[in-house]
């Protein structure tokens, strides 16, 4: 199944390092990050999962729950987590799905046969509290993802859900944001009390509204 932005993220039941999980029950009303990695006991994956674990307070601040996945067995996940904790100086608390029968991988299109017939690629989805898919990225096995970028996208999505704005290239939380073309400059001057800077009629900035 091919999942696209705006689709409802499908629910599933799966075995995980923390026991059986119903995806929707795990997410509750939170934002969610579901990410696949190629295999347990591999170096790039070890650094990715360790770093994600270290970002726990950042995800908590953004009301976001994290869940990982590979097609390895639950016993491997549990044993590998000890290695991750030891080598990355952390304590992995989020669940890792043991998708041995590839049920979830097929549901979410995490196996790309021309990349690998057996291992999952490095895909990551951000899912909002309405269970809509808001971001999909897929990286090759040899390239670790940038989880600071995932935090940045979460900040952008949560901002644009609360205010009618967009965020420009390389935007970081706290920087000026873009007024979308759907708002005229005249209306923008009424809506955005902090001011509007018009560079071109279609390129207008305002200070971030929620700080
Ligand atoms: C890794 O996680 O280190 C890795 C996994 C598959 C292929 C290459 C690297």
TrEMBL record:
Active site annotation, chain numbering: 45
InterPro entries (UniProt xref): AhpC/TSA, Peroxiredoxin_AhpC-typ, Peroxiredoxin_C, PRX_1cys, Thioredoxin-like_sf, Thioredoxin_domain
Residue ranges the record marks as coiled coil: none
Keywords from the named record: Antioxidant, Oxidoreductase, Peroxidase, Redox-active center
EC number: 1.11.1.15
CDD domains: PRX_1cys (cd03016)
Pfam families xref list: 1-cysPrx_C, AhpC-TSA
Cellular compartments per GO CC: cytosol
Segments forming domain Thioredoxin: 3-159
GO biological process, one term: cell redox homeostasis
Organism domain of life: Bacteria
Gene Ontology molecular function terms on file: peroxiredoxin activity
Keyword Nucleotide-binding part of the UniProt annotation: no
Family stated for the protein in its record: Belongs to the peroxiredoxin family. Prx6 subfamily. Belongs to the peroxiredoxin family. AhpC/Prx1 subfamily.
Protein name (Swiss-Prot/TrEMBL): Peroxiredoxin
Organism: Chryseobacterium lactis
